[in-house]
What does this fold into?
Amino acid sequence: MRQADVAIVGAGLAGSLAATMLGRAGYSVVLVDPFDRARPDFRCEKIERPHADSLRKAGVLDEILPAARRYENIWVARLGRLAEIKPIVEHGIAYGDLVNAIRDLVPSGVTFLRDKVTGIELTGERQTLALAGSESLSARLIIGATGLGAGLLERIGMHRREISKHHSLSIAFDAEAANLPFDSLTYFGEDPAHRISYITLFPLPSGLRVNLFSYHDRADPWLRAFREDPMAAISRALPNLERLTGHLSVRGGVKIRPVDLIATENFARPGIVLVGDAFSTACPVSGTGASKALLDVERLCNIYAPAWLASPGMGTDKITTFYRDPAKRRSDAHSLKSSLLSKRFALGQALLWRALRWGCYAGSVMRNVATHGHLPHRPAEYPVLGEPPMHQSA
Ligand SMILES: Cc1cc2nc3c(=O)[nH]c(=O)nc-3n(C[C@H](O)[C@H](O)[C@H](O)COP(=O)(O)OP(=O)(O)OC[C@H]3O[C@@H](n4cnc5c(N)ncnc54)[C@H](O)[C@@H]3O)c2cc1C
It folds into this structure.
């Protein structure tokens, strides 16, 4: 049986980062995943400030960024009109490329097994992992980084609880547009009746990318219309978008992903710690799922795992110190709260929600004035398509 200090199950975003950090720290690590390389998948496609902070603390940010496309000049539109130009820098990168960029940093001392973990036996000392291939594995600590897959965790008595089924819908496609006045645009829904949280345009190394986050039911007629003619459906739901973007056209296929909010229960067990989506998922609208996964791994591998491995035993008392970490708890709470509140913010018809949307618009405009010294406006070198009239129903 192969022996290691740490067995990491899953070489996605969280598992690959954990393997890199613990491998660099000199631990004997085995990383298990059924796929040699991460496959293209629609997930987090931006490195925003919280992602960058955790990647920096994990010591890998500077090695990852060359694979991504840097952009600034980030516009935010609310109530159908430009509200703010943000003085920040972000990076666009396809999810598979991000995971593979981290996988490329995993030190050669880490053993990679192209396999699937099918069973786990837990004790307060050593853990045994059964693999679909012939080999089995023994490790002091298991890091469960299995993402959305529930089967393995259920088999060891954990329970994946649905907090909100069919919570939202995420859509992505490549696009073409001429002479955009921004590098990136986040355009919030104009009218709650259209059930759109926001659409965002940003550059990937391969070109212009569009993510659209909505709360349509899977049987909603808008979704059927969207499948037939995506841009016509978007224009109907966001009639003022084209004033900022000009004509947009779809390039290639469209990916549509329904999203459930899920949290794992009964997770406090000896010998195994869960990170990322294996612990809980976030709504993509909140933009917190990947930052939560990265923060989990950064805290675990910088602080907790080294302390646990420095003394005998791997009982539940050790493992639960990670779940009580204040930064992790704040990140989990923020992620869940913003996942739930964003939906009410986008769909709320009551006066309170209308007032909040106007308040956010006013806040964005005031931030713009404080930052740039003037109201947000299109730069003179771009043709003025005209600001829309204030939207009444927001
Ligand atoms: C449509 C969509 C859009 C999103 N957009 C954003 C965003 O804008 N911002 C943001 O912060 N977050 C976003 N997220 C969330 C974010 O992408 C995820 O939270 C994050 O990718 C989770 O990473 P992970 O490592 O936990 O899981 P994954 O990257 O899914 O990795 C899981 C790995 O485990 C492996 N595995 C599973 N079972 C086994 C097994 N039994 N044995 C061995 N290996 C196994 C799988 O092969 C996989 O490689 C989005 C999510 C979705 C679905």
Observations:
- Residues 9-15, 32-35, 42-44, 46, 116-117, 145-149, 152, 170, 257, 259, 276-278, 282, 284, 287-291, 293 surround flavin-adenine dinucleotide (CB under 6 Å).
- Residues 326-347 form the longest helix (22 residues).
- The CA atoms of residues 77 and 187 lie 5 Å apart.
